[in-house]
Amino acid sequence: MADRGETPVIAVSGLRHRALSIGHLAIPPGITAVIGENGSGKTTLLRIIAGIEEPESGTVTVDGISPRWSEVGYVHEHPDRNLLFSTVSDEIASPLRFRNFPCDATERCVQRIAAMTGISPLLDRPARDLSGGEKAVTALAAALVHRPNLLVLDEYDSHLDPVRCRQVDGILRSCGAGYIIRCTQWMETAASADFVIFLERGRVARAGSPEEVFSCLESTVFYPRSWRKTS
After folding, report:
1. H-run or E-run covering 59
2. Which DSSP helix (H) or strand (E) runs through 11?
3. Which of 12, 73, 94, 117 gives a 20 to 30 Å CA spacing to 200?
4. Contact 228, 215 (CB under 8 A)
5. Over the stretch 177-208, which tens digit does the pLDDT of each residue have?
């Protein structure tokens, strides 16, 4: 956690890794959307923030500590790569079992998060039989079950229909994570975030509130459709 008197923040400093080159970036608590063209470094940045990859140089800290010492939940872009266990209930329970949670406490947590994400009817289903959207929500449930401070989502919403996207957005707002970093191709989703990072060729071209970032992108494909003036 941040030291007493410090403002909570994810701090990126002097980051150099593959195509990424970020001198300084401060990500506030809340929901952050990361946008940009394919190959701009979005997934690489998310993996470093989640502690999955170590940067070649520079530092990333979450409330003053390494991501690898933080409580992190991560959802991969490809649903099949998230799932390791045979049933939905075992998949959701796995983060708690790895932490040696008692069986009764684990079962209560699984039931709670399944109800929260609307997948209680799927708990006994084989994970391999799920649709892409069901796999994505199962992976989200597994990422949330241990109440992470940092939740990282790499285009998980590309497998969800608009109705399910809106439902999950409500879940994210109430899940209790201090930081939610989400990469998305949906600019309407990005526009609803608290903070937006626009990457361009490995560098932060813009970062700030949705209004600050999208005001500079009006002539691009990244401008939210609902923001465009209609005649």
Report:
1. strand 57-62
2. strand 10-17
3. 73
4. no
5. 999 999 999 999 999 999 999 999 999 999 99
